[in-house]
Specification:
alpha+beta, Molybdopterin biosynthesis moea protein, domain 2, Molybdopterin biosynthesis moeA protein, domain 3, disordered C terminus
Amino acid sequence: MNDAEPTTTVTAVPDTSVEEFVPVAEQLRRVLQAAVRPSPVRVAISEAQGLPCAEEVVAEQALPGFDQAAVDGYAVRSVDVRTAGDEPVQLPVVGEIQAGSRQPRRLQPGQAVRVATGAPLPTLADAVVPTSFTDGHQAKVTVRQAVPSAGYVRRTGEDVQIGDVAVREGDTIGSAQVGLLAAVGRSKVLVYPRPRVSIISVGDELVDVDRTPSVGQSTTSTPTRWPPRPGMPAPRSAASASSRSTRNACARPSRAGC
């Protein structure tokens, strides 16, 4: 009878010398989780384009701030030209108002006032007859087409009412928002500044671009900071993977606004 052959039990030991692969999505999550949101700063609206708004901007004045002509033409009472579609109506022209005029003017029944686009309407006028609807005369105008009440008029607060939110917090400020902020009387606005990112190329074989690589070395091609900060010294773009200073830099956020 043969003796049984001895058996050997082998226990697999995980290889701890190989670091666990971290997916890109997880790396991105870790970076975003560790990112520090910049504190809001107040800047001129001309410098705010492309930045997220950090406050809710409420309009303190209406836009437009007064009833104004939407086209070049004649300010009239709509009832005085209601029959112009059937038979031309003639009205005496008693004056002219240009855009930006501050002189108040009162319109009497049966009269017309020549107005430019953006000009304030005279009192009692509720419509503007476009020049193309008339013969364009200066002293007495012939109106060939009727216009309804509020026709070709931009009413007070038609675009923005007092108390309306002009720009919401979190909105990205573009050219339209800059124009609106200016229109409601804001020269500055609170925004979140652009985040700054520093990239450290890690590797014992890497050298900075201002150094000549030796055998076994290569020049790093990674930018060090985005966007660049005028007047700030650039950090070293390459670092040793085993350097204690490198590990410390990666373990805490930079105080230099990176």
